[in-house]
Amino acid sequence: MSQPSITIPSSLLPADGRFGCGPSKVRPEAVAALAEAAPTFLGTSHRQAGVRSQVGRLRAGVRELFGLPEGWEVVLGNGGSTGFWDAATFGLIEQRSLHLSFGEFSSKFAAASAAAPFLGDPVVVRSEPGTHPELVADESVDLYALTHNETSTGVAMELRRPAGATARQLVAVDATSAAGGLRWDPAEVDCYYFAPQKCFASDGGLFIACCSPAAVQRIERLAASDRWIPASIDLKIALDNSRQDQTNNTPALATVFLAVHQTEWINSNGGLEWAASRCDRSAEIIYGWADKASYATPYVSDPRHRSHVVATIDLDAGIDANEVARVLRANGVVDTESYRKLGRNQLRVALFPAIDPADVEALTACIDHVVDALA
Length: 375
Ligand SMILES: *Cc1c(COP(=O)(O)O)cnc(C)c1O
Fold this sequence. Notes:
This protein is an alpha/beta fold. 38% of the residues lie in helices and 14% in strands. The chain has 2 domains: 41-268, 3-Layer(aba) Sandwich (Aspartate Aminotransferase, domain 2); 271-374, Aspartate Aminotransferase, domain 1 (Alpha-Beta Complex), CATH 3.90.1150.10. The chain has helices at 28-41, 49-66, 80-91, 104-115, 213-224, 235-243, 253-269, 271-292, 321-330, 357-374, and strands at residues 73-78, 97-101, 123-126, 143-147, 149-150, 155-156, 170-174, 191-194, 206-211, 296-298, 310-315, 346-350. It has a 7-stranded mixed β-sheet with strand order 1-9-8-7-4-2-3, with helices on both faces. Strands 10-11-12 form a 3-stranded antiparallel β-sheet. A two-stranded antiparallel sheet has the order 5-6. The protein is globular. It starts with 27 loop residues before the first helix and ends with a helix. Bound molecules: pyridoxal-5'-phosphate.
C-alpha cells in the first residue's frame, strides 16, 4: 500500500474497514472457526457425513431464521443468484413472467426471461433509478419477479402479493443483498432466493432458495413436462439433492461453512428481528449523518424506500466521491465506491448484519475528515 495523500487519524478509523456490498465483510470469528475445522472438513467428500451435516445445518438454520412454514423447502445449488435466474427461467416460469425493473440486478432476471425462446415476452415494469415500481396484478403472467433490495441503487421494497393475484401465480424474490438483514413474511412470497456473500457474510458461488409448497409444485410440474432443462440448473435435481443435504455437483465447502456460521450467529443472537434491528441502527446512523452533513444527501428521496442494508449517499458536485473513496481505500476503508453503471457522484455503503453499527459511525467521521482535508 502506498502512502496515502491524506492520513486519517487512527482514532477515527473503524475497527473493520470493509463496507463493500459483496463480497462483503466475513466475520473473523467465522474464518477462525473454519481454520480450526479445516483439517477434518476442507478437502473431504461432499457426499460424506462431515459436509452433509453442514449443508443440513445451513438448511435448518435458514428455515429457523425466516420462520418458514411447514411444507417449505430450502433448495441449494451452484451458480449464485445469477445462476438461479437461469434455473428459474427454465424451472419456475411456466409461460410468462412479470418483472419490476429498477436497477442493474432486477433488470438482469428480466433479460434472462426475455431471451428464453420457450417463454412469452415478459412484462417489464420500470421506474426511475432511486425508486421502485408499484406491483399490480396481471392475469397474463404466472410469476411475479421482485427484488427485495436493489443493490445497485440502495432501494428496498416491502414484499407483498399484488391484490387480485391468483393461486396459480408465484411471487419470486431476488433477496441476494436483503436476506438476513430485512424483514419479510413468507405468506407474501413463494420463492425467496439469495447467495451468501452479502448478509450471510460468506463467499459466493452458491444459491439458496426458500420455496413454498406452490413453488415446489411448479418445479415438479415443469421438470415432468417436455421442456428441456440443462441438468446443472435443473431445480428438480437441486431439490432432490437438497432433501439429501447434498448438492448436484461439488459446492465450495468454505462457502457452506461460513454461511452456517453466520446463520447460527444471527439465530443465537435473536434471529431475523435482531439482525434487522442492527441494520436499522446502522441505517439511522448513516442517513442521519447524511441529512445533517452540508455536502451529503441520501440518494433515495423517499425515506420509506431507503434500504437498511445498502446506503447510497450523493455528495455535492464540488466534492469528487471517487476521490473520497480512493482516500478511504488508501487508509484501509474499502469498497465505498458507488455502483459504476449508476454514474452518480456517490458513495455506497453496506450495512449488513456483520458490520458493526459503531463502524458505520466511525466511517461517517472518516468521510467528514477526508472531505475537510480535500477542501
Ligand atoms: C449481488 C447480487 C446479485 C448477484 O449475485 P451473484 O451471486 O454474484 O450472482 C443478484 N441480485 C442482487 C440483488 C444482488 O445484490
